[in-house]
Every structure is written in structure tokens, then in C-alpha cells.
């Protein structure tokens, strides 16, 4: 399993973007697909 720390700015940006090819959108999509596990504090 891959673990990653995701900054809240990435999550907010992914929600606001209308571009499906934006890096932030792709990160959230991969997270939803279960490709990696997000770590947070």
C-alpha cells in the first residue's frame, strides 16, 4: 500500500477545478479509487 500526505489546499483545489486533467483532480480521483491511502493529522 502506498501512503501519502495530502495538503488541504490540494483537496480544495480539486473541488473547485473544472479541468478533469488537473493534477489536483487526478490526486483526489486516485484517492477515491483506493490507489493509495491518505495520511492526515
Give a description of the structure.
With 41 residues, the chain is an alpha+beta fold. It has one domain (3-39). The protein has helices at residues 8-16, 23-33; strands at 3-5, 37-39. The protein has a two-stranded parallel sheet with strand order 1-2. Helix 1 (8-16) crosses helix 2 (23-33). It starts with a strand and ends with a strand. The mean pLDDT is 93.
List keywords for this structure.
2 helices
Helix content: 40-55%
- Strand arrangement in the largest pleated sheet: 1-2
Task: Indicate how many domains the architecture comprises.
Answer: 1
How large is the share of residues in beta strands?
5-15%
What's the oligomerization state? single chain
Classify the secondary structure makeup into a structural class: alpha+beta
CA-CA gap between termini:
19 Å
Number of helices: 2
Which spans have pLDDT < 50 for at least 5 consecutive residues?
A: none
Largest sheet: 2 strands, parallel
Q: Judging from the principal axes of the Cα atoms, what is the shape?
A: flat
Taking Cα atoms only, what radius of gyration do you get, to the nearest Å?
Answer: 10 Å
**Number of beta strands:** 2
Helix-strand sequence:
EHHE
Write the layout of secondary structure elements.
Layout: E1 3-5, H1 8-16, H2 23-33, E2 37-39
Parallel strand pairs: 1-2
Helix pairs in contact: 1-2
Short description:
This protein is an alpha+beta fold.
